[in-house]
Amino acid sequence: MPHVLAAGDLFVTPSLFIDAIKARTGPEAEVSFSELTLPWPIEPFGPVGSVNEASGDPTALIGALAGAEVAVTQMAPFTAEVFESSPDLRLISVCRGGPVNVDLDAATRAGVIVSFAPGRNAVAAAEFAVGLMLTAMRRVVIADADLKKGTWRGDYYTYDNAGSELDGATVGLIGYGAIGRIVARILRAFGSTVVTFDPYASAEAIAADGVELVELEDLLRRSSVVSLHARLTAETHHLLNAENLSLLPVGAVLVNSARGDLLDYAPLPELLSSGRLGALALDVYDVEPPSADWPLFAAPNVVLSPHLAGATKQTAERAANIVADDIAAYLRGDRPRYVANPDVWNVLSERFGS
C-alpha cells in the first residue's frame, strides 16, 4: 500500500492535499496518508540547509517521512540530509512554480522524482500586480492613511499632484511567463500599451498577444510603469539596479511582486526622493520581513504588502489539485506532468516497465 505524507502548512493545508488526492484516486484506492503541518506563513520562509524558501525542521520532516513513498508539500525543506534518511521515498510533489525548497541534485542521486505546479498562483499574482499599479499611481494607501488621521488630501486633486491612468500608458513587463501574460491581457483591457523583456519568450507568440518584445534598456526608457514578473536565477539577480533604473522616465512607477532579489533595493530611496521614481509598490523584499530601520519605510510614495500576491483560496485549491493530478498519475504508473528531474522518471519507468 503506497503511503503519502501530506506536509502542508497554514495556507495549503494537509487536508487540501489529501482531499484532492482522494478525489483522483477514488475510494477503492489502497493509499494511506499521514500529515505534517508547517508554520508558514505565520513564520516567514527562508533558507534551510541547502534549500531556499523553506519552512520547518528537516529532523521533524525525516521523522514524518518514515515509510512514505510519496510526499506532497509547498514549503517542507527537502535537503540532502532528508533524502539520505528517507530510503522509501520515490516522489515529491511541490505545489509551487518551481521546487526551490528541494535539493534537486540530492533528489536525483537518491532516485526521487520531483514534480511541481507551474501556474498555480498566476491569476492571483497577476491581479495583485495590477492592483499594486493602480494603488501606487493613484496614491490610495497614502490618502487612506491620511484620511484616517483626519487629513483631507485635497492637494492630490491639483494638477501637479494628480495621479495618472493606465489607459494610454506604456507598461513594461519584465518576464512574460504565465503571470506576465495574464497581466498583459488585463492591461490591454485597460487600454495600456504593453512591452516586455523576456529573453526566453517567443516574439511571434508575444506579438499575437498584442505585446511588443523589446530589450531591457528600451523597456525602461519607454515605460511609465514597470512591473517585475521574472524568475529569480543567477542571471536575473539584481536585474534592475542603480545603473539601468536611471533610464526610467521621471516619475515612473515601479512594481515588484515577483522576487525581492530581482531588484537592487539600495538605490530606491534616492530614486524616490529625486523624483526619478514617482511611486514604488512592493510585495517582496531582499530580506523578508524587512528590518525595523529599513530606509523605504520612511520613503515617500511607497506601497508595501507582506508577500501576499498569491494569497487567494483559489491559489491554494489550484495548487493542491495540480500536484494531486501528478500523484494520481504516478500511482497509476504514468509519468507526472511536471517533472523537474525527468532522468529519474526515465530510469524508474524502465525498471518497473511503465
From TrEMBL:
Q: Which domain of life is it from?
A: Bacteria
Q: Record keywords: NAD included?
A: yes
> What Gene Ontology molecular function terms does this protein carry?
NAD binding; oxidoreductase activity, acting on the CH-OH group of donors, NAD or NADP as acceptor
Q: Which UniProt keywords apply?
A: NAD, Oxidoreductase
Lineage here is: Bacteria, Bacillati, Actinomycetota, Actinomycetes, Micrococcales
Span of domain D-isomer specific 2-hydroxyacid dehydrogenase NAD-binding: 130-309
Where in the numbering of this chain does the D-isomer specific 2-hydroxyacid dehydrogenase catalytic domain appear? 59-341
Q: Which organism is it from?
A: Subtercola boreus
> Which family, according to UniProt?
Belongs to the D-isomer specific 2-hydroxyacid dehydrogenase family.
Q: Which CDD domains match?
A: 2-Hacid_dh_10
Write down the PANTHER family for this protein, in alphabetical order.
D-ISOMER SPECIFIC 2-HYDROXYACID DEHYDROGENASE FAMILY PROTEIN (AFU_ORTHOLOGUE AFUA_6G10090)
Q: Which Pfam families match?
A: 2-Hacid_dh (PF00389), 2-Hacid_dh_C (PF02826)
The protein's name: Hydroxyacid dehydrogenase
